[in-house]
Amino acid sequence: MLTAIRRDIVEGLVPPGAVLEVDVLAAEHDVSRIPVREALMTLVGEGLVEHRPRRGYTVTRLADGELAELFSVRGALELAALAVAVRHVTAEDVAAASAAHEALQRAVRDGDERGYHRSSRAFHAALTRPSGMPRLLGVFDRVWDLTDPYRPMDDLGAQEAARLHAEHGAMLAAFTAGDAATLLAEAAAHQENLSARVRGREFAPQAPPAPLRRARRRTGTNGTNGTSGTTSEEDE
Q: Could you tell me the pTM of the whole model?
């Protein structure tokens, strides 16, 4: 359940600012309210969800300028990982990066925006994984989770998509050759292009968040979710 909720947020299916109702999520996942609240509090700790006492949970909405800041942080973390990873590349690592690059190419060709985001992330993960630095990569993933809900590449034009894909290709070639200087230079240029795109655009959610709704009140014992007595979303 935690993974499913996180995935829906990261992939933009539940947009920034949207309300996350405990009762609704419990019904969707056929669980009681307790594990839902635990999952949501984990996501609060990750920065993906915000909680306001007696008002409930919402998907985190970044303040102006924060998305660009996170892209800069993401780029710095990736460069640190790549500097180590390129010294430990194996044939299996090259195969994984090449497969991710091919999937990315198909997404560009097909105009598959959701597939593009997913494959781009897989490609960058394949390049950084050989670093063997789990703590750094964990933070890298966490920051990526915070930027993806804004879908910054959803409206890429054909020319811009081709340019970014060419940059991926140059990074893959340097990674395969074990050329650290070229890989870091190409990655830095790619990150600057991504950051410039984010700085120059507004990535607010397309639809306004749903208003906070008063919860349904329930009386008695529910054998499905294990709750009893009278409950309300306002208890959150």
A: 0.79
